[in-house]
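Now for our target.
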Amino acid sequence: QVQLVESGGGLVQAGGSLRLSCAASGRTLSNYAVGWFRQAPGKARAFVAVMSRSGARTYYADSVKGRFTISRDNAKNTVYLQMNSLSPEDTAAYYCAARRTGSSDSYFSLVLGYEYWGQGTQVTVSS
């Protein structure tokens, strides 16, 4: 079992930055592909970014490409999401999730298949 806890959300003005953290316990995060997802009110949960188990591959939703960066600190067993140039459209609850993969370089953008989820952290961007 992997327990995931997100933090770092908050209220920020448009154009600002936030860094979200996803701290894991119970298992080593480098044994999993880790993704970030977000869910705005009344909308389905949507893919944001993912890092493969190896850490060598990352993939981003088109809407955040060039603005968001996913990274991992193995020593802290934590995955981060650096979010820059935020806009009101980025307002949502953000969730990290982990899943096992056959290949160390595999990554997945679908919500289905992620086994472990954090409780979420709210990001609100004001205009």
